[in-house]
C-alpha cells in the first residue's frame, strides 16, 4: 500500500501495439493506478441495442496483468452521436434558450428520461461485468459534472422540485416575494426556468428575481446529483463495496459540492489553478475538498504534468513545480496523485494538453523524467502517510448558497466576488502556517477555536446560534461586510443588519456605500497604522462592540471599519469593508494571537508548512518552498526527511531550494 | 397647497399591520403624496376573468384616511404570469429574434391585441372605481415605457404604420434608398423589422439600412405611445379631469418624449444620474422634461433617497445630497419631489435599492432623518413656488431623430455620441448661470435670443428657415460638426454640407476627417489661445463666414475650426470639430456676451444658480452648492431665504456650505 | 492600352439626367473603366418570372457611347427581397443557429438549390445579352464572397463533401480522432455543422473538434467557390472569352483564395487596410493576390478615394496618399486602379463612404482634383507597364490551412495570430527592399533562393520534401515556432516536433512554454545583442543545427531560440519564439546576406522600392515615400521618371517629397 500514482489513460485512442510502450513507460515511472473509460460511451454502446466491452476488457486485463489498478469510469460524461440523433431530448437547451445538437462533452440534459435510463444502464452493465475484478479499486461516475440545462424536461422537473420544497404556491410566492413586479404565480406551470428569455438580463448573474434564480441553481446542482445517484445505485446492484466517486473542480460555482458530499464514498478533484503561482488557491481547494468528507483523505484525480490546453495562454510548469504541487496535495490530505493524461492523444481539443508520454513517445523528456522521479519518491514514502488526517483548530466556512446569493444580487456592488474575499482570509491563515479546515455552514463547529466566515451573506437554520456558541465557549468568530443579510429564501432580514448575527457581533449597520475598485479608504488601527479598504463601506454603529479600526476618509471617517465584541468567553469580529491583504493579515493575526495559534515555524515568504497526523499518531510535517529563492528554517525538533532519508536535528538550519519539498517525520 | 412630497409605495408587499408604521413615519417626514399600484396587475386581476380591488381599496382608503393624496398607477408596467402562459403573444420577441417567456417587467409586446385589450380594460376598471375619489390626484399609466419588440404582431403593425407614412411602396423605396444593395421592396409583406436577423450587425446601432432602422425606432416609440393612449382613453371614459402622466427617464434614446408630449397632461421623470457628481446632467434633463410641456411644472416622480441597486457599483448619496438634488429639481421646475421607494421590499432585485424606510423600519437612520428634514423644509416653503415658470432667453434644441440618425450612421465616427455633445454645450450655458429651455426642433423659437443646436444631424421641415429667422431678427444660432447632413428620411442632402443650413452659416464643408479619441488637434482662437478638437474634423471653406478659430495640426492646419457668419441682424456660429469643454465654454461665452446674457451671479465653481418666476411675478432664486468646498457670493439685492427665513441684504456676502441650498425671494 | 482607371458605378441609384454630369466628370478625370451592376439583382429580376434589363442596357450603352469600358457584375452579391420571402431557404442560418430573414448583402446560403439555380440563371441571361458587347471587358461574379451558413442544406452538402473526401466513416472517424470524447460517428447523418450549438464554445475559434471545424471551413470556402463556378459556367455558355473574376479582400480568413485561384481568369482585390499607415500590409496583400495567379497582373478592384464608412473611426486619406497607394498597387503588379465608388449614394450604410464625386457633385473638391491628377498621370504612363511582372528570388509561403488550424487550436497560445507573424517576416523582407512572391504551399519552389514559411503549422503532401529540396540545392528555408505540428487532418505528428521538418531543421522541440504578451524573454545573438521573444517559447534540442541565438531568462535560459542547420548546399533556419521586429529583421537580414539579396537601394525609412519587368525586358523601378519626411536616395543608373519625364543621372541625388512617387525606367 502506498499513495496512488497514475492518471487518465485512454488507450482506446491508439493501436494496441502502442500499449506495450505505455506499460513499459508506466513501469519506469512507478505508475500503479489508471483511470480508464472516462469517455467511452460511444465505444461500449455503439448503438442503442448494442453493448460491446471488448476493448475495455482488453484495457482492464492488460492493466491487471501489468499489476496496475484501475479507477473505472462509467464513461457517461459525453453521450454518443447516435443517442443525440435518435433522442434529441438528451442534448441541452442553453441559457439563451437554444436547443443544442450533437457536440462537445458534458452535453446531456440531466432531466432527460432517456439519458437517465441509458446512463444508469451503462453503469449497471459495467458493474455487472467488472464488479469484483481485483484490479478495479474505485468507480468514477461521469466526469466534472457541471453546466446547466433549460429545456422543457428540466422545467417540468424544476416544478416538481419546487412542489417538494414549498408544498404550496402560497409558500413559494412568499419565498420568492412575487408580489413585487406583479409576479404572483397562480399555477405551477406558469413557472419558467430563469434564463435570458425570462428573468435574466446581462447574463446569468443579473436576474429580476433572485429567489427563482437561486432555486434553479439549487435544483440544477441536485438534478446532476440525481444523475450521479442513478449511476451509483446501478453500480451498487452488482458491486456493494468498491468506493464510488466523481471528480470535482476548483472554484466551480454551479455545483454545490457540500450537498453532494454524502453520496460520494470518497472525494476527488482536478487541480487546474487559474495561474501558475497560486499556492494558497490550491491549498484552499485541497482543504475544501478534504472538508467535504469530514477530513478523510481524498484523491487528486487530475493535474497536468506540464501544460493545459484550453486556456488562452497555457504556461508550462517549471522544473520541480509538478513535484511540488503533487506533494502539496498530499500535504493537504490527498492519498492519490493522478494526472490527466498518461499519453497525449493526437487529435481534437486536448492534443496539446500536457501528458506523461508525449506524441513522440519518448522517455527522455524533462516531463517524463520528473514524473518518474516523483514515482520513485512516492514509492520511497510508502504507506506512512496513507490515511493521515489534518489537525486544525481553525475553520473557514464556505457556503454555495452565500456564493450564489451574493453574486446574483442587485446591489450593493457587483465587484465583490465571494471566492476572492474568502480566499483573502484563507490566505492570511495559510501565510501564518496554521492548519485550516474549510467547511460547510452545516458542519459541527464545536471542535474549533476560531471560525472565519467571510461574506456570510445568507444565514440559514441554526447557524447564527452555532456561531454564537463558538464565541460563548471562548472561541473567536470573524465575519465581514455583507454578512447576515438574507435568509434561506434570499429575503432580507426585517431587522438591523447583520440580522441574526447582530447580537453576537455587537453592532448594527446603518447604511453602506459602494465605490469603484480604485477608490481606497484607508482604515486606521489603534496603533495608527493603516490598511486599505475598498468596494463596500458599511457604516457601523456599535451596539456593544469595541472599535478596532476606523475609516479615515469620506463622511464616515472615524466610524468603525473593524470591530471586536466580547461575547461569552470569546470574541466576535466584524470587518465592514474589503480590507487589502495586509489589513486582513493583521486582523487575522490578532485573532490567532489570542488563541496562540501559529504554525510550527515562523512564516517564511513562499514557504508553506502543512501537517498530517497518522492514525497511530505519527506527525508528518511538509515543508514546501513555492518561492523562487532558497529558504531557511530552524528545525524545532529532531526529524527525518522521508523523501531523502536525511536526518534533521533540532535547532539546525533546514535549507529548502526553490520549489523543493521536505517531508519531516 | 405645497410642493408634493412622497413616492412609490407598495404596501401590498407586506402585512397590513406594518401599514401603521408606514403612516406614522410618513407623518414624521411630512409625506403627503403616495404613488400606488405601479406593479399590481397580478394583484388586481389574478385571472383573466377575475378582478379584485380589495387590497388596492384598502391602500387607497388608508392613505385617504391619513390625509395623504394618491398618484394612482394602472399597474400595467408588468403583466401577470397567467397572462403570459395563456396568451404567449403578450411577451416580446427580442432584437435577436427570441420569443421571451414570462419574466421581468416592461415585458409586454406593444402590438399584441391581447395586451392592448386587457391593459386598457384594467385602466378602464380602475378609473370606473376610483374616478372622483378625493385622494386620487393623478393617474400614472404604465411605468418607464421602453424596450422594443420584434414579433410578428409588431411586424404587421410596422407595415401598417409604413403604409400610413408613405402611402406607396414607390415612396418608401425612395425614402429608404433601396436601389442600394438590391433592396427594392415589391410587396409590403417583404418588409421585416430590422434586427440581428435582418439588417443589423454588431448590435442595434449597426444597420445596413438606416432608413429602415430609423423608421422602426419611430414606429416602436409610437407603438408604446399607443399603449399609453389606450389606457388614457379608457381612464377618460370615467374620469374626464384628473391629470394623467407616465414617468420618463433620463438619457433614454428609444422613446421620443417630444412626440409623446401632447398626450401627457403633465410631465414627470425619474432622476437616476449615471454618476454621483453630475449636476449639469440632472439640470439638462430637468430642463428637457420641463420643455416637453412648454415649460409647465413637472413632477420628479422618482429618485432614490440613498442608493440604487441595479448598477454594478451603487454609491451612497452623501449627507445633504438628497436634499440638494431635490431642491435642484424644484429650481428647474418640479412641483413634486417623490422617491422610489417609501419602504424597502425584502426580496427580489430591488431589495437593496434605497428607501425612506429600511428593512429594520427605523426612524433614526441618517437617511430617514434627512428625508424628514426635507419634508419640514418643503412645508416651510409652502405654496410660494407652485406653478412658477423658468425664464429663459436661450434655447438648446434636442432632437430624437438626430440622436437616432447620428448614432446608427455608418461613418464618419462611432465615437460621436449625440447626448454627450449636446451636454457639452448645455454645460457651458449652465456654468454661465443662464436660464435655458431644452426644446424640440418643432418648438416656437421666436422668443429666444440664442438657439444652440449641437450636432443637428437631421434638418426637417421648416427648421432651417426658422433658425435663419432667429438670426435675421438679431439672435444667434450656434451649431456644430455633423449638422445639416440628412433629411427626414436620413438621405444626404444633394448639396454642399451643411445642406439647408449652409446659407445661414456662410460656409461649406468640403470633406471631413475622423480620428481616434486620443488624437487632439489644438484649435487656435484669434487671441492665440487654444482649445482641443477631437473625433471629427470638418474642413470648412468659408462662403462669407468669418473665421473665429483654426486648426493647428495636420494638412488642414490654418483652415477654420470655428466660424461666425453675420446673417440679417444676427449671427450664426459653426463649430467644425468636437471642442473640449474649455473650447465650448469660450465659444458659448462669446455668444452670450453678445447678448449680455449672464446669470444673476458671477459663476462660482460648483455653485448652480437657477430662477423661477411665479405667475404673480415673484422671482425665486435658487443657490445650490454642488461642490465640496464652501462658496461665497455677493447678494445683488435684498432678499429672504425661504428655507431659513434669514434676510440677505444687497452687497452682503452669502455663504453656502458644501451641498447647501438657499432659496432667495 | 493603358492601366485601367475607374471604379464601381451605380447610376441606377439616381436619375438619368445626373448621368450627364457623371460622364462629364469622368472625362475630366480620365476615367476609362466602370464596374457596373454589382448589386442589381432586384433591378434586373424584379420577380421570379420577370427579367428586365432596360436600365442596365442604358447604363452600358451610355458608357460605351462615352468610350468607356465595362467590368460587368452579375449582381448576385445580394438577393432581392421577393426571393427571400418566396424561398426562405436562400437566407443563411448563422453560427448561433438562427435563420436570418431578408436583409443586408452577402446574404445567400451557398447550398440553397434555389439560390444556385437563380444566381446561375441571372449570369446566363446577362451573358446571353451582353456577350460580345465591345464595351464589356470583364465579368465580375458576385462580390466579396464570404461569411458562412449553417442551415440544413449546408449540413446535407457538408455530408456529401465529407463522403467525397473520406469515402468511409472509418476514415473520417480516424481523421477527426473521434474516439476522443466518445464522438465516433456511425451514420453520416449524425454529423452536424460545427457551430455554437454543437462543437463550439466562446465563438468560432473555440471548438472541441478541430478536425470537424477545419473541414467545415474548407467545405464552406468550396461551397462558395461552387457558386462562383455556377455563374462562370453560365457565362461561358454565351461568352467563351471575356475574362471572369471576383473581388477578393485582404486578411480574409474564411475563403481560401489559393483554392479559388484556378477558377479565376485574373485576380482582383479590394484594398481597405485596417489602418492608415500600413504600407507593408498592403504590399503583402498585393503580392499575395499576384501570387494567386502565378504572378500575372491583377486588378485593384476597389479602394476608397478618401474615407471608408464602416469603421468605428473613418480617417481621411491625406493629400497624396490615394495617389501613393494607387501607384503602390501598380508597383506590385496591378494593371488596373479602380475605386469604390464613382459617385456617393445618398442613403443607407455607404452614404458616407468616400466617392470620386460627392453628394454636391462638385469637381473642385480636393478629392476630385487628386483623382483627376492621377488620371492624367496614368494616361501619361501609357502602356509601358502593362503586363510587366515582378522579379522575385524570395518566396513567403502563406497557407489558409495553417491559418485555420493554428487559430482554432486549443493550446499553446491563442495570442499567436497567423497573419501577424507572417507579416513580421514579410515586413523584414519589405524593409530590405527585396522582391517577394507570396505563394501557396503547393507552389513550385524551384525558382527561389529563399523560402520563408513562418508558423507553418500544418505540413501537407510533399511540402516537407520540397522545402528540403530548396536547401539541398543551396537555398535557404526559414520557419518558426509552431511549425510542423499537424498533418492535413490536424492530427499531431507522432514524432518529435517539428515532425517532417525535423531533419531539414536539425532540431527537435522537447516542450514549449506560453506566456502572456507582456512577458518578454530577451534572446541573445552571438554578438551579444538581444531581441525580444514573446508568446511562445519552444525548448529546442539541436540535432545537428547550430545555435544562432539563445534565451536569456527562465529555466530554459541558454537553450536555443534561433538555430541554423546546414542541409545539402543550403541552410534551414528555425526561430523558436515570436521575435520582435528587430529580431526578425536581423534573422531575415542574415539569410538575405547569404544570398546577396538586397534591394536596388539601401533602405531608407518609409521609402518602398519595388520593381516590375516588362515582357520586353524593360525594368521599372517604383520609389514610394510612405513617410512624412522628405527622403533622398542616390541614383544607381541613368533613368527617366515616367510620371514627370525628368531625367535622373547615375550618382545624382533623388529627392522624394513625403507621399511622393517616382517611376524610373
Features:
11-stranded mixed beta sheet, Immunoglobulin-like, homotrimer, TIM Barrel, 27 strands, alpha/beta, Rossmann fold
Briefly characterize the structure.
Chain A is of the alpha/beta class. Chain A is built from 17 helices and 27 strands. In chain A, 30% of the residues lie in helices and 20% in strands.
Write down the overall geometry of chain A. globular
Number of helices of chain A: 17
For this structure, what is the CATH homologous superfamily of the largest domain in chain A? Glycosidases
Proportion of residues in β-strands of chain A: 15-25%
Biggest interface reads:
A-B, 57 and 56 residues
Low-confidence stretches of chain A: none
End-to-end distance of chain A, in Å? 19 Å
Work out the count of structural domains of chain A: 3
Can you tell me the CATH topology of the largest domain in chain A?
TIM Barrel
Supply the CATH class of the largest domain in chain A.
Alpha Beta
| Number of β-strand runs of chain A | 27
CATH architecture of the largest domain in chain A: Alpha-Beta Barrel
Sheet having the most strands of chain A: 11 strands, mixed
Helix proportion of chain A: 25-40%
Multimeric organization: homotrimer
Structural classification of chain A: alpha/beta
Rg of chain A, Å, rounded = 26 Å
